[in-house]
């Protein structure tokens, strides 16, 4: 009987497929949400860089009071109290800045693209983690079924042995040995059930479920165990992955961002041209002037406006421009190394996944042969034991060897499925079961 049928308080509406697990995680995982926020931040920064092309406009209102001696129009000083209210508008616009704004925009565009690729990488990582956790549950359940079948077989053997002891065809000691075997197998069943529950808990925690009472997974249709149909060569997978994997694209965009940053730094040596415009008006009163003009009249009489252009020619800025350029060049070399390291790490992961998949498939085939052979051998051993031709130790050893071969077969099966799915995923095929 499958372990899921033995689970207490199993809720039929709390059974998840792998695709449901992935969809839930992509919508709720904290790391993914953080990457989404980072992408939004980079997008806002890009919009700000684009807005730097526009002129600014600022308004100001000032109010000041004067007390004591002050200079009059006749160039004499007199004690007075005065009030001055000022109104201003100012605007500035960059006409030319050595391409700094355009290159800053390009740099931020690459930063945004890199951030989006990092978001995709986070989604890919959680997808792989979920697939592995999902398969761990299936693996633990199948091991439980193997151990349960072994225990059932031993319990049936105990019933037969008890009859043989009653008939005087088997010693009491042999029966006790079989019962000890059953006790060991019962412990294996308990451990397997605990492993299954822990695997379920692990998946529920990855999904960050607040309540996982009755949580379980669907029993999918597993792929056929055929290496020639399931495996692409490591070289073929890498050639496809290096052009499409988000971690490689992110590193490439980071390098392009650094190249743009170098252009920004070099623009610091180029003259810049800016335009400005201003408007000012004021209202003034003084205690010594009894004929202060009216507010409206003063605003009409005191208006002042200006427009102008400013050419800034950098000559010496304490080596700041040179340092910025050198640091940008260093950053480019660092990003090149990052890109190379990312490609090498991707190749290493693919090659390891390929070798592990081949090895697990070979182990699966070898264990399949071993299981078939040991099952046949154990049937003969069981018949001999019932006839008293072999002792309980030989029977126990044969049964233990069969159980180990069956467990190894299950392990190789799920390892091959996972590794082959990883290779397919690197090649651009979504993980499905």
Task: Tell me the series of helices and strands, N- to C-terminal.
Answer: EHHEEHHEHHHEHEHH
Structural class: alpha+beta
User: What percent of the residues sit in helical stretches (DSSP H or I)?
Assistant: 55-70%
Total helices: the number is 10
Q: Which blocks of ≥5 consecutive residues have pLDDT under 50?
A: 5-11
CATH superfamily of the largest domain: Outer membrane efflux proteins (OEP)
Strand order of the largest sheet: 2-3-5-6
- For the record, give the distance between the C-alpha atoms at the N and C termini, rounded to a whole number: 22 Å
Keywords:
two-stranded parallel sheet, about 65% helix, Outer membrane efflux proteins (OEP), alpha+beta, four-stranded antiparallel sheet, elongated, about 425 residues
Layout: helices, strands, pairs:
Elements: E1 15-16, H1 18-28, H2 30-51, E2 58-71, E3 77-96, H3 100-166, H4 172-206, E4 216-217, H5 227-230, H6 234-244, H7 246-266, E5 272-286, H8 295-301, E6 304-312, H9 320-386, H10 392-426
Parallel strand pairs: 1-4
Antiparallel strand pairs: 2-3, 3-5, 5-6
Notes on the protein architecture:
The longest helix is centred in the first third of the chain and has 67 residues, at 100-166. The protein has 10 helices and 6 strands; from the N terminus they run βααββααβαααβαβαα. The strands form 2 sheets. It has a 4-stranded antiparallel sheet with strand order 2-3-5-6. The chain is of the alpha+beta class and 433 residues long. It has 2 domains: 3-55 and 93-266 and 310-426, Outer membrane efflux proteins (OEP); 56-92 and 276-309. α3 (100-166) packs antiparallel against α7, α6 (234-244) runs antiparallel to α9 (320-386) and α9 runs antiparallel to α10 (392-426). Residues 5-11 have low confidence and may be disordered.
């Amino acid at each position: 009987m499958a372990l899921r049928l033995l689970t207490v308080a199993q809720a039929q509406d709390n059974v998840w497929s792998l695709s449901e697990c992935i969809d839930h995680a992509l919508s709720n995982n904290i790391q993914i949400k953080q990457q989404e926020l980072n992408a939004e931040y980079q997008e806002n920064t890009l919009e700000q860089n684009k807005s730097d092309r526009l002129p600014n406009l600022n308004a100001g209102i000032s109010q000041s009071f004067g007390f004591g001696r002050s200079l009059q129009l006749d160039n004499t000083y007199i004690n007075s109290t005065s009030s001055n209210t000022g109104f201003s508008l100012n605007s500035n616009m960059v006409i030319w800045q050595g391409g700094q704004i355009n290159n800053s925009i390009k740099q931020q565009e690459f930063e945004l693209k890199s951030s989006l690729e990092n978001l995709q990488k986070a989604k890919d990582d959680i997808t792989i983690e979920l697939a592995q956790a999902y398969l761990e549950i299936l693996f633990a359940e199948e091991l439980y079924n193997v151990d349960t079948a072994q225990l059932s077989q031993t319990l049936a053997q105990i019933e037969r042995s008890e009859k043989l002891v009653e008939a005087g065809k088997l010693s009491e000691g042999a029966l006790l040995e079989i019962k000890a075997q059953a006790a060991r197998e019962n412990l294996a069943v308990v451990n397997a059930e605990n492993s299954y529950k822990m695997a379920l808990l692990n998946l529920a925690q990855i999904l960050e479920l607040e309540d996982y009472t009755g949580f379980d997974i669907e029993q999918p249709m597993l792929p056929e165990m055929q290496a020639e149909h399931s495996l692409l060569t490591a070289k073929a997978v890498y050639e496809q992955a290096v052009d499409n994997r988000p971690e490689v694209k992110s590193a490439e965009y980071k390098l392009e961002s650094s190249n743009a940053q170098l252009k920004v730094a070099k623009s610091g040596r180029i003259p810049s041209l800016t335009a400005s415009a201003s408007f000012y008006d004021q209202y003034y009163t003084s205690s010594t002037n009894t004929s202060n003009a009216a507010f409206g009249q003063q605003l009409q009489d005191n208006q002042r406006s200006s427009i102008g252009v400013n050419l800034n020619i950098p000559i010496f800025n304490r080596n700041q421009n040179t340092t910025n350029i050198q640091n940008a060049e260093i950053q480019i070399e660092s990003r090149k190394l990052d890109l190379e390291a990312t490609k090498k790490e991707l190749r290493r992961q693919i090659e390891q996944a390929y070798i592990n998949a081949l090895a697990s498939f070979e182990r699966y085939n070898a264990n399949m042969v071993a299981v078939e052979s040991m099952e046949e051998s154990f049937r003969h051993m069981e018949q001999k034991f019932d006839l008293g031709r072999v002792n309980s130790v030989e029977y126990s050893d044969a049964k233990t060897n069969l159980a180990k071969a069956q467990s190894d077969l299950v392990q190789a099966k799920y390892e091959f499925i996972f590794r082959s799915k990883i290779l397919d995923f690197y090649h651009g095929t979504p993980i499905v079961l």
